[in-house]
C-alpha cells in the first residue's frame, strides 16, 4: 500500500522581512562608506548619509541602518539556532558568514560609539591603500584595524561563499532562458548519457501527479 504524501507550502514573512531589512541596510551602509574613498564626495552619497542619519538630533552619531542591520543579523542568527530542523541542516560555513558579518558590524559600531576614530586619517589611509601606497597613520587604535581586517576577510571570502547568491540575479536560468522545460527537453552537451541518469518531467509528473493535484499544482496530464 502506497503511503499518501501531502505537499505543504507556507509563507515565512518574518524571514522575508529579516532578509529584506538586512540586504537593504547593508547596501545603504556600503554606499555611505564611499565617502571614505571618493574626493570630492558625490552629492548622492551625502544625501544618503543625511537621510540615514535623520535620528541624529535625538541619538547623535547613530544611523537608522545601524539599528536595522544589527536587529536583522541577530534575528537570522537566532532563527538558525532555535529552529531544530534548520540547525540540523546548517553547515559551519552558514554560521561563519553570519558571525563574520556580525563582527564587521559590531566593530564598526564600536568605532562609532565607543572608540572614536579620526575619519580624516581613516580616509587618508583608505585612499592610499587604493593607490597601492599604504601608510600607517598614528592614533587609529586597535578597533579600527580589527574592523579593517574583518572587512578584508569578508571581501576575500565573499566570491567563494554562499553570499555570492547575489550573482543569481544575472545568472538565473528563469531570467535568462526560456521557461519551456515542460514543452522542450534541454540536455547538457557535456553530460555523459551512459553515466547520467535522466529523470524527465513526464516521469516526474507520472510519479507525483496525484500529490501535485492535491496540492493544487497544475499538471499536463489528468
Short account of what is shown:
This protein is mainly α and 222 residues long.
Structure report:
This protein has helices at about 15-30, 45-50, 65-80, 85-90, 90-115, 120-130, 140-155, 170, 175, 200-215. The protein is mostly helical and about 220 residues long. The chain folds into two domains: about 15-170, Transmembrane di-heme cytochromes, Chain C (Fumarate Reductase Cytochrome B subunit); about 180-215, no CATH class. It is elongated, with a radius of gyration of 24 Å.
Key terms:
single chain, 222 residues, mainly alpha, Fumarate Reductase Cytochrome B subunit
Q: What fraction of the residues are assigned to beta strands by DSSP?
A: under 5%
- Distance between the ends: 22 Å
Question: Which structural class do the helices and strands define?
Answer: mainly alpha
Helix and strand element order:
HHHHHHHHHH
Q: Helix amount, in percent?
A: 55-70%
By CATH reckoning, the class of the largest domain would read Mainly Alpha
In CATH, the topology of the largest domain is named: Fumarate Reductase Cytochrome B subunit
Largest sheet: none
Number of strands: 0
CATH homology group of the largest domain: Transmembrane di-heme cytochromes, Chain C
Number of helices: 10
Uncertain runs: none
Number of separate structural domains: 2
Average pLDDT works out at: 80
- The general outline is elongated
Radius of gyration: 24 Å
CATH architecture of the largest domain: Up-down Bundle
Amino acid at each position: 500500500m502506497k503511503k499518501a504524501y501531502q505537499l505543504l507550502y507556507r509563507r515565512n514573512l518574518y524571514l522575508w522581512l529579516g532578509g529584506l531589512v538586512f540586504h537593504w541596510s547593508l547596501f545603504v551602509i556600503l554606499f555611505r562608506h564611499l565617502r571614505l574613498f571618493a574626493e570630492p564626495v558625490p552629492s548622492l552619497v551625502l544625501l544618503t548619509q543625511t537621510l540615514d542619519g535623520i535620528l541624529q538630533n535625538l541619538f547623535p552619531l547613530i544611523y537608522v541602518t545601524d539599528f536595522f542591520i544589527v536587529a536583522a543579523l541577530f534575528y537570522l542568527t537566532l532563527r538558525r539556532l532555535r529552529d531544530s530542523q534548520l540547525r540540523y541542516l546548517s553547515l559551519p560555513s552558514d554560521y561563519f558568514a553570519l558571525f563574520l558579518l556580525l563582527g564587521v558590524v559590531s566593530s564598526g559600531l564600536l568605532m562609532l560609539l565607543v572608540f572614536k576614530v579620526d575619519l580624516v586619517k581613516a580616509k587618508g589611509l583608505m585612499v592610499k591603500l587604493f593607490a597601492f601606497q599604504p601608510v600607517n597613520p598614528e592614533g587609529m587604535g586597535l578597533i579600527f584595524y580589527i574592523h579593517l581586517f574583518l572587512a578584508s576577510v569578508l571581501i576575500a571570502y565573499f566570491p567563494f561563499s554562499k553570499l555570492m547568491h547575489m550573482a543569481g540575479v544575472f545568472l538565473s536560468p528563469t531570467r535568462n532562458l526560456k521557461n519551456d522545460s515542460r514543452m522542450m527537453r534541454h540536455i547538457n552537451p557535456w553530460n555523459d548519457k551512459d553515466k547520467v541518469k535522466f529523470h524527465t518531467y513526464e516521469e516526474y509528473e507520472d510519479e507525483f501527479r496525484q500529490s501535485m493535484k492535491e496540492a493544487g499544482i497544475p499538471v499536463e496530464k489528468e
